[in-house]
Amino acid sequence: MAIWKQLLGIIVLLGLVGFGVVAYVPGGRAYLETAGLLAAKSDAAAPQADATKNPAGAGGPGRGGGARMALVVLQPATEAVINDRLSTLGTGSAVQSAVLMPSTSGTLTEVRVTSGAQVTAGQVIAMLDPASAQVAYDAAKIVLDDARRTLERNQRLGSGSVVSATQLQALDVTTQQAELALRKTEIELKNREIVSPINGTLGLVQVDPGGEVTASSVIASVQDMSKIKVSFSLPERFVGRVAVNDPVSAIPVSLPALDVTATITAIDNRVDPATGSFEVEAIIVNDKALLRPGMTFTMAMQFPGDTFVAVPPLAIQWGSDGAYIWQVVDGKAHRIDVRIVQRNAENVLVAGGVAVGDQIVTEGLETLKDGAQVRVFGTPQTDEAGAGKPAGKTP
Prior knowledge:
By secondary structure, this protein is of the alpha+beta class. Among the domains are: about 5-40; about 70-80 and about 305-370, conserved putative lor/sdh protein from methanococcus maripaludis s2 fold, CATH 2.40.420; about 85-95 and about 225-305, Elongation Factor Tu (Ef-tu), domain 3; about 130-190, Helix hairpin bin (Helix Hairpins, Orthogonal Bundle), CATH 1.10.287. It has helices at about 5-25, 30-35, 45-55, 130-160, 165-190, 380-385; strands at about 70-75, 80, 85-100, 105-110, 120, 125-130, 195, 200, 210-215, 220-235, 245-250, 260-265, 275-285, 295-300, 305-310, 315-320, 320-330, 330-345, 350, 360-365, 375. It has a six-stranded antiparallel beta sheet with strand order 2-15-19-18-17-16, with no helix packed on it. A six-stranded antiparallel β-barrel has the order 3-10-13-12-11-14. The protein starts with a helix and ends in a 10-residue tail after the last helix. The model is unreliable at about 40-65 and about 385-395 (pLDDT under 50).
């Protein structure tokens, strides 16, 4: 076959394919009708086509061939409160505590208490060997007694001008020095006693009688556990929102079923710039003796909180300038720019030109335009458009 016939056949085939594609793509039929390559539809078929595009019919929305209104689902905006509860961890300690250590070195001759005993302030816990201190005390007492007798004798003689005033003054100084020396030995003898400075519960006794101890040796610790002091930190945004005597819920991490009430007793006067928080102390009355120093507590506080409008997550749309939602007023859609405050599992808290109770679009958002009329799912208007059935339901 001649090559020109082959080329002619290819051109005809391509033309037929192109005609078919243009005829069935959106807008292609109108182009072919304008070019005179395809017969226009009859006027009788036009209403039927319009009716197919607009299920509402002549009596529904879009009457006269107008654009079909968007079908939307609405939900009212609600109210939510945030920052109304704060939970943080705190560490407990005894309201008073002391570590018992000797004031001097020596041999431990006696331990008068056992581990876990209840002690009172001033009670002797243990004793060091007092022998050397006792000897020093006795010697100082003898010196003082002699100095006092000498002073008294010379004072009697001095009345007859036998002893000069200078001599009497020197004897008086000697007596005072002997008194100071005796007081020093009294302190040294007293230091042989290891005494509890507070009321409380004794910890583990870490020494035994007969052992050598120094001024750095720990005998035991004593804790006043009648009250537990809990220290915890709060973010700086709560400055001024807590005060002394405010109640705090305290739950021991190791005893989650135990919920006790603590009372704030002290608030630090500065915010730590490194952490952005400040320290708070609260007291728990440990009347049942269930709590121990060193325990960890979950500290929870209630606040008035901040109130915001809440909308469903599906209502949030995003544009080049941020988040927005669609609100329906008198059957018309209006775009409302909002600021996202907080996202939760069930709603989104927003700030902007929306109020509690406003009707917010949650479905049918794709074709909305600002100020356009909309149909609301489930209303009589959509029932009429669907021949007595809500739009989206099958007869």
